[in-house]
Every structure is written in C-alpha cells, then in structure tokens.
C-alpha cells in the first residue's frame, strides 16, 4: 500500500496545491467540477464555433480558451484542462462521438476479440493536441492557480467502452464483470496502463496535479469496489509516482458511501466527496488521513439564496481546521446562474 502523505513541504504560492501537499489553510481553495461548461455564456459562444465535441477537445486553442474562461471570470484556485475522460478509448482505437444532446456513443466492446482489436499501448501521439492545450494554458495561467489534469478511473471508462453509451445503473458492465471476470480484468489492466502513461505525460507537460474521476463508484458492491475501483486506481497512482515522484492526486469516488473511507488506501492526496456524504462524519472518518474535496449539491447553486448559503456554511464549518478543497459534489449544471457562482466564491473566500 502506498499511502503517500507528504510531511508538509514548503508552501508553493498555489493554495490548492498546498492543501494537496498537506497544508491546512484558513480559507479553503475552491474549484468546481465541470467549471468550463454550458452555464457560461462565453463557453456556449465558443462551443457554437467548434464542430463536434471531440473536435473541440482536440483543438488546442479552443480547449485552452475553455479552460481559462472560468478562471478569468471567477479567479478560481484550480483550472481543470478542458477535455473528456473518453479521449482514452478514442486513443486506444475505439472511436468516440457525441450525439447532440444525447451523450457519448462508442461501438461497444464486450469480448476478448473486441479488446484485442484495440491498440496494445495508448497512442499518445494521437493525443498531442491535448498536450499542446496544456502548454498553452500553462503559459497563460496566473501563478497562484493550480493546473489540474484528469482521467476517468478504469471502471468508469470501462462502463462506457462496454455499453457504448451512458447507462443509468451500469447494468451491461456489471453483468459482464460477473459473467466474464477475465475479460473485465484484461480491460481494466489495459486502462490502468493507458491511464498511467496519459497522466504521466500530462504531469510532465505541465499540470500541477491530477484528478481521477470514478463517477460510477456507486454502482459497485463493496467487493466489486475493491476489485474494479480501488485496486486499479492504486495501481495507476503507484505507476504515476514511479515516473513522477510525489505526484499530487485527487480521487473522486462518486456515491461510494462508506467506501470513501478507503480512498486513502489508493495513495491519493485528497478524496473527492459527493453531496450525499455527511460532512461531520467525513471530518471524523476521512479528513484526518487525507484532504477532502467537496461537496456542495449543484442544485443548491441553481436555486441560490438561503439554500445555497446554508449548504456552503455547513461544509465550511465541518471541514474548518483540516485539509479541505471546496468543490461541488458533482459537476455544475447548465442551468446554474453565473451570479450565484460569483456569490458562492465570495462566501467561501469570506470576501
Ligand atoms: O470539469 C471541467 O470543466 C473539465 C472538462 C470535463 C468535461 N468532461 C467536459 C465536458 C471533464 C472533467 C469531464 C469528465 C467526464 N466526462 C466525466 C467524469 C465526470 C462526471 O461528470 O462524472 C464523464 C462521466 C464524462 C463523459 C461525458 N462527457 C458525458 C456523459 C457527456 C455528456 C453529458 C453532458 O453533460 O452533456 C460528456 C460531454 C461533456 N464533457 C460536456 C463537457 C463540457 C458537455 C458537452 C458540450 O458542451 O457540448
């Protein structure tokens, strides 16, 4: 087990990175999952100029611009590279497209023959536009902003590769994992290798830290969570740190319930919490071991007013005195009024 909790090295001047390095700050740094997105009018304008969503992701100038938009507007402490978790299957040879308003589409892979048709190793040259976008953002980012890269966790990405689209309870992936665990092992192992190489390249190109999105942890039994989620994530983190010693890594296991208490076993520096997690409980059970990130209900920010303010204060009060990164419990939604986000940022910062 590689629980790497660094003994608070010197402050870097980047508050989010400092929390990941073990510092406790008076005010938590803040960023927002899906902060570059459709709730921003400037994003919608840029999006209208791009062709398909994948073309958007693979056009460095556009991806860099989308990344910077929420930083310009709100001065958030973290900038997350505009991209998608599905560039990994795309770069392995399983073509990804987005049906307008319907989400991702991939030709499903459900057996060894399908898996064997994919590339053995990820072709990082195909992802050159992603790395070029990183260089562009890095050159433009304020010195105090922590730059985040990301990938999907193997189980979450595998669920799309198997079903070929979003599936509410991940029935196709869960069934296949029961019926053909050898296939699942092979798919997950391929994704561990690909994700490790991808994150290493992102870190070497210039991101300060990375987040691993396990958006569908909540679909797994405890045994399956151990096998298909915690273990591969731990392998990725060990692999990344073998190449980039001390790499700072956030692991977001959405809807993992008590499973959140086990995220430290992966070696993560921070555990991302969904909005179903009780903050007082997390402050006792999770925060002593690693930083916590979260966990405002995105819909409270659509509503705004007292509902939002109460939600913010509950989180700030519970996590004060420990390592905390303020965020939502999942992505911001397109209906969110931009002025509510401005009020949220000011309240978290006490300005
Ligand atoms: O957070 C950010 O601002 C960075 C960009 C980012 C996107 N996707 C851009 C995006 C990140 C970090 C992701 C991760 C991602 N993508 C996840 C994990 C996080 C989560 O939300 O659980 C998942 C499961 C995906 C797969 C995906 N991408 C789906 C299911 C969809 C369609 C759903 C939707 O919201 O439309 C996407 C498309 C997508 N990725 C959009 C954005 C801004 C919206 C499409 C558009 O703008 O046209």
The number of helical runs is 15
Structural class computed from helices and strand pairing: alpha/beta
- Spell out which ligands are present: coproporphyrinogen III
Q: What number of domains?
A: 1
Q: Report the order of strands and helices.
A: HHHHEHEEHHEHHHEHEEHEHHEH
Mean pLDDT: 96
Give the low-pLDDT segments. none
Q: Write down the Rg.
A: 19 Å
Sum up the overall morphology in one term.
globular
Return the CATH architecture.
Answer: Alpha-Beta Barrel
Tell me roughly what share of residues is in helical segments: 40-55%
CATH topology: TIM Barrel
Account of the 3D structure:
- The protein is of the alpha/beta class.
- The chain has a single domain (15-349), classed as TIM Barrel, CATH 3.20.20.
- Helix content is 47%, strand content 12%.
- The strands form two sheets. The chain has a seven-stranded parallel beta sheet with strand order 1-4-5-6-7-8-9.
- Helix 11 links the parallel strand 5 and strand 6.
- Helix 14 runs parallel beside helix 15 (338-349).
- The longest helix is centred in the middle third of the chain and has 25 residues, at 181-205.
- Coproporphyrinogen III binds at residues 33-38, 47, 53, 80, 82-86, 103-104, 150, 152, 166, 213, 215, 331.
Jot down its keywords.
351 residues; alpha/beta; TIM Barrel; 7-stranded parallel beta sheet; two-stranded antiparallel ribbon; 15 helices; 9 strands; binds coproporphyrinogen III
């Amino acid at each position: 087990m590689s629980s790497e909790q660094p003994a608070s090295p010197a402050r870097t001047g980047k508050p989010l990175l400092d929390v990941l390095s073990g510092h406790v700050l008076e005010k938590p740094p803040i960023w927002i999952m899906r902060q570059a997105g459709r709730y921003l009018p400037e994003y919608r304008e840029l999006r209208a100029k791009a062709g398909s969503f994948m073309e958007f992701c693979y056009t460095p100038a556009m991806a860099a611009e989308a990344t910077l938009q929420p930083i310009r507007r709100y001065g958030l402490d973290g900038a997350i590279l505009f991209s998608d978790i599905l560039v990994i299957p795309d770069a392995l040879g399983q073509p990804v497209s987005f049906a307008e308003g319907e989400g991702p589409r991939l030709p499903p892979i459900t057996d060894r023959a399908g898996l064997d048709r994919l590339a053995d190793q990820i072709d990082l040259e195909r992802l050159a536009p992603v790395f070029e976008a990183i260089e562009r953002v890095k050159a433009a980012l304020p010195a105090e902003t922590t730059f985040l890269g990301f990938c999907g966790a193997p189980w979450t990405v595998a669920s799309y590769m198997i079903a070929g689209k979003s599936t509410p309870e991940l029935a196709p992936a869960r069934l296949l994992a029961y019926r053909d665990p050898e296939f699942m092992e092979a798919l997950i192992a391929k994704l561990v290798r690909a994700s490790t190489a991808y994150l290493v390249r992102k870190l070497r190109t210039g991101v300060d830290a990375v987040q691993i999105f396990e958006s569908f942890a909540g679909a797994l039994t405890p045994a399956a969570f151990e096998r298909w989620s915690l273990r591969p994530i731990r392998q990725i983190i060990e692999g990344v740190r073998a190449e980039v010693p001390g790499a700072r890594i956030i692991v977001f296991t959405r809807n993992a319930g008590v499973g959140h208490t086990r995220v430290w076993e992966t070696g993560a520096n921070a555990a991302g919490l969904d909005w179903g997690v009780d903050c007082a409980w997390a402050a006792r059970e999770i925060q002593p071991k690693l930083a916590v990130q979260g966990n405002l209900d995105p819909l409270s920010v659509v509503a705004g007013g007292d509902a939002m303010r109460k939600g913010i204060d509950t989180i700030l009060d519970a996590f004060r005195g420990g390592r905390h990164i303020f965020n939502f419990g999942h992505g911001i939604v397109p209906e969110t009024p931009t002025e509510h986000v401005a009020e949220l940022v000011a309240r978290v910062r006490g300005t």
